[in-house]
């Protein structure tokens, strides 16, 4: 079942959210002041919805949009170095039409993959508060419910995303083990309800520049999840 209409409506509602005053102020201030390198851009400056088909079999859950990445371009992991690493890996695995993601009109297509985040607004210092995470959770829950008919695997990037994703998955109808499984790179948790959950270090510059997360490590995790989802 492809609920593309329902997901499109959800994406529109997400992009209009003003629930968190600190995040609203920050994302709009960044959009006004801009970064010198992007002075000629009209920044998105709003919450960034998920991206990918409504019948996705694999979901990738990150942290939040980057101030001069998703907050500028309007697409998750687009226009920053984290996205460069992620989309290159998806392209290498045959899950994306191109290895780069630079703008909404760049022609990128994802094959069976939906990319989203537990927080849809760019936060100061890339650090949402627990309260902001919890306020944003209903959007992720609704997205997961809409994806549920086809979703077979989820890769969560980083510990923050993992902590946010577990209760969202529970609310969306999957059974998460108790005690809740700990995050770790390479963690694999089969959930009741037919979903395989995987942990992966975040594609942040801190991790990729230091070698904590290499392209090979990322491809291995995404490839394993894609195979579990029936995409390879």
> What is the overall number of helices?
8
CATH fold annotation = Uracil-DNA Glycosylase, subunit E
The biggest sheet amounts to: 5 strands, mixed
Q: Widest sheet: strand order?
A: 2-1-3-5-4
Which architecture name does CATH use?
Answer: 3-Layer(aba) Sandwich
Oligomer: single chain
Structural class: alpha/beta
Question: What separation lies between the terminal Cα atoms?
Answer: 20 Å
> What is the number of independent domains?
1
How would you spell out the order of helices and strands? HHEHHEHEHEEHH
How many E-type strands?
Answer: 5
What is the class in the CATH system?
Alpha Beta
Large-scale geometry: globular
Q: What does the average pLDDT come to?
A: 97
CATH superfamily: Uracil-DNA glycosylase-like domain
CA radius of gyration: 16 Å
Helicity, as a percent range: 25-40%
Low-confidence stretches: none
Query: What percentage of amino acids are in beta strands?
Result: 5-15%
């Amino acid at each position: 079942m492809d609920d593309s209409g329902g997901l499109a409506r959800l994406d529109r509602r997400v992009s209009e959210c003003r629930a968190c005053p600190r995040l609203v102020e920050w994302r709009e201030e960044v959009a006004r002041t801009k970064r010198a390198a992007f002075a000629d851009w009209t920044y998105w400056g709003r919450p960034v919805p998920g991206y990918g088909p409504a019948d996705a079999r694999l979901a990738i859950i990150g942290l939040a949009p980057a101030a001069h990445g998703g907050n500028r371009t309007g697409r998750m992991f687009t226009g920053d170095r984290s996205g460069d690493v992620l989309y290159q890996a998806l392209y290498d695995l045959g899950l994306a039409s191109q290895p780069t993601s630079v703008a909404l009109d760049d022609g990128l297509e994802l094959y069976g993959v939906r990319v989203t985040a537990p927080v849809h607004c760019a936060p100061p210092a890339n650090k949402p508060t627990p309260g902001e995470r919890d306020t944003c959770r209903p959007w992720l829950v609704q997205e997961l419910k809409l994806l549920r008919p086809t979703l077979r695997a989820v890769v969560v990037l980083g510990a923050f995303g993992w902590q946010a994703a577990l209760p969202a998955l529970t609310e969306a109808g999957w059974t998460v083990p108790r005690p809740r499984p700990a995050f770790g790179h390479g963690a694999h948790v089969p959930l009741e309800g037919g979903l395989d959950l995987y942990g992966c270090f975040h594609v942040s510059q801190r991790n990729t520049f230091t070698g904590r997360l290499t392209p090979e490590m990322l491809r291995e995790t995404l490839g394993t999840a894609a195979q579990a989802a029936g995409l390879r």
